[in-house]
Amino acid sequence: MKRGKGMKFVGDSRVPINNRKPNIPKDYSEYPGKTEAFYPDFLLKEWMVGAVFLIGFLCLVVVEPPPLERIADPTDTSYIPMPDWYFLFLYQLLKYSFASGPYNILGAFIIPGLAFTALLLAPFLDRGPKRRPLDRPFATGFMLLAICAIFYLTWEAAGHHDWEAAKKQGMIREVVEVDKEDPAYKILEANTCLSCHGGNLEGGSGPPLAGTKLSVDEIKDIAKNGKGSMPPGIFQGTDEELQQIAEFIKSIEK
C-alpha cells in the first residue's frame, strides 16, 4: 500500500490558522514621506479636501450669482466676446502674430496640445521614488513653466482688456420692437448704423436711439457730423433719406 493511499483529509473551520496575517498596509518606510496606504487613508484625505472646496464653491455661487448679459444680437458686429477667466491665457495667446491670422491653427490647437501633452507626460519622465521638488527636475520644471506661462498670459489679457466697455456692451437693455420693413430702417441698415446701435436701436457700442430725447434736427446733425466716438461721414445718404431716418428714430418710443 502506497503512502497516503486511501487516506481522507478532513478540515475543521473551528481550528484557527496561526499564520494568517492581518490586513495591514505595506511598509513604505523605504520611500521618504510615504508612510500611509493610498486606500483608504490617503484617498479619504483627498475626498475631505475636495468636499471642503466644493462646499466653498457652492457658497460663492449662492452669495455671488454669475452675471447675465443681454440676449445675443447677430446684427451687433461691435460686440467683442470675452472668455471666462480660466481661458484668458489661451485668449491672450491668439493675439500674438505667431499664433493668429494664417497661423491660427498653431495657436488654437498645436501649441496648447503640445503644452498639455508635456504636462501629462511629466510624471512618466521622472518616475523616481523621491517626492521633494528639487529631486524631480523634469516634473518640477514642466509644472513651473506651465504656471508661469499661464499666469503671465492671464495677467496680460486682463490688463489690456477694457472692462468698462465690456460691461456696457453686455448690459441688459430694454428692447423695443421696431418696424423693420420701414424704408427708413432699410436706410439705417444700409449705412451700417445697426452695427453700433443694435438691431432694435436699443444700443450697442453706440448709445441707444430708441426713446431718444434728441430732436429731429439734432439727430440729423449727429448723423452727418458725428459726435463723441462717432466720426463724421458715417451716413452717406441724401438729405431726404437723412430727414426720413431722423423722423423714424424720433417716432420710436420706449
Automatic annotation (TrEMBL):
Sorted UniProt keywords = Electron transport, Heme, Iron, Membrane, Metal-binding, Transmembrane, Transmembrane helix, Transport
Q: Where is the Cytochrome c domain?
A: 179-253
UniProt-listed Pfam families = Cytochrom_B_C, Cytochrome_CBB3
Q: Name one GO molecular function term.
A: electron transfer activity
Transmembrane region(s):
42-63, 103-125, 137-155
Gene Ontology CC: one annotated term: membrane
Cytochrome b/b6 C-terminal region profile domain sequence ranges: 28-155
The record's InterPro entries line, in alphabetical order, gives: Cyt_b/b6_C (IPR005798), Cyt_b/b6_C_sf (IPR036150), Cyt_c-like_dom (IPR009056), Cyt_c-like_dom_sf (IPR036909), Cytb/b6-like_sf (IPR027387), Cytochrome_c550/c551-like (IPR051811)
Compartments where located: Membrane
Membrane-protein topology: Multi-pass membrane protein
This chain belongs to the protein called Menaquinol-cytochrome c reductase cytochrome b/c subunit
Classification of source organism: Bacteria, Bacillati, Bacillota, Bacilli, Bacillales
